[in-house]
Structure prediction request, 577 residues.
Amino acid sequence: MCADFIYIVSAVLLIYGIKLLGKTLTARRGNFVSAIGMTLAILITLIQFKPHNLTLTFVIALLGAYVGVLMALKVQMTAMPEMVALFNGFGGLASVSIGLVEGIKINYIPAIYYNSDIFFSQIAICLTLMVGGVTFTGSLIAYGKLSQKIPTGSITFCGQKWVDLALFFLLLVASCEWIGAHSIWAFYTLILFGLLGGGVFVLHIGGGDMPVIISLLNSFSGIAACAAGLIIFNKVLIVAGCLVGTSGLILTLIMCKAMNRSIKKVLLGGFSFKATQTTTQKQGELKQISIEDAYYILEAARTVAIVPGYGLAVAQAQHAVKDLGQKLMANGADVYYAIHPVAGRMPGHMNVLLAEADVDYDQLTELETANGRFADTDVAIVVGANDVVNPAAVENPGSPLYGMPILEVFNAKTVFVLKRGQGKGFSGLENELFTKENTRMIYGDAKSTLTQLAAEFKE
Amino acid sequence: MLLKLLTIKLHFGLHIMKKSFTVESMDYGWLGFGILLASWLGVELISKIPSQLHTPLMSGTNAISGITLIGALVALAHTHDPLTEFLCYIGVFFAMINVAGGYLVTDRMLKMFNSKKR
Prediction:
């Protein structure tokens, strides 16, 4: 009775925490409130369901906490997306282990299983194993792609769709076989195919869609937790899992909308390359500019827009860019940062980085406001952004990007593009911005370019 | 609106709290009702969130999904053989990484948002 009451309190704290997380001013407090709710739930569970070996449980939990804290403290802000993906995968793995344990109990000692409605438990276990398995391996692949340990592009092979379909079908068959006929081999097949499914599913999703996928996997880990809650009838687990599941789903849809891609297209993976290559031809030369010349233009500029993208994160250039921004302001220019909602590999990725560099909050401009200002902007500096400034999205109906809201930097009088090399964007598409009349390219590491530019101002 | 939802949820909680863990048959109607309300709440809470908070929100909810730790603990309490016990400990270990790491990373991010608010 008392335990149930505390479960409710902790559920309310978790909900209230998410609510506070949604506002800039209260966000940190919100995170704290939800952490308290979590701690409360864990403690009461330990009291209500006392483990046989309390010391060992504590040691293992503390070990896990230690590893988690270490990872969280060591991670660079730029590597945040892959860290979230990895943590997410661990949550999925934990759900799989619960499903596995409960499944084994049903398989070998059904007579003393604590829930008399074994049919219901089995359905919940199947759901946990499928969703949890997909979350685990999917997150690992996402982690590999984001940290560039495996090729970031969309990896597809002949008959991909049929393999996906076959896997899904086999999952259903194995579930039915296990629930209906209690066949133990079907149970293990189910686990195997669940894990395999996540890998195949994320492997063929292109790097540009990673923000959407992380959010979706986050939602999955919530659903897996909810399903695990159904197995053991734990209310706080069910409620919290549901919350995370639906909020993740909504976030995914919001992001899809920002990229103007339907969730279906993202999930089916890859762009239709054939259509693009015929329509996109190189129209002009790439014009390079030296740092010195760039400095003269910047010095005369009255309004400067800085457009950060994933390249900023890769080059760890957030402090350098802030430094340059301050020099420009000291020079009398009006500086603003134009932030695309899906710039980087995670929604709001750029905000986090610029916040780390202590960029003034009022200078961050969102998509629509920024687009209204580009026409009056003397120089737009694109730092490692590509697809989010690709004019094909508004000019070329044949482009797969067509229709996606972009930052219309080409309206600025001059555009500087800071880029490592002449490669394509994450989506693998040509960017017509680079060959436009008013665009100048500055090749090299973004951080050193920015530092050099800022150094010119000192003299 | 939110408050109203919360009170409904509390009522729902009070209703099923009378039943113990080893239930003969859970009231699936109440269960579905609870899931529905929790899902609706998730939608309501997220719908109007400024885009710069998307990353912290994602990692914050990610930490909450580590609540599956509770599941691992409950399963552990009802386990009597070494194999399943071992699997439970794996669950506890990884869920704990998710919880501790998730909250800390979120806090680190939000600390940076806050420091420049002054």
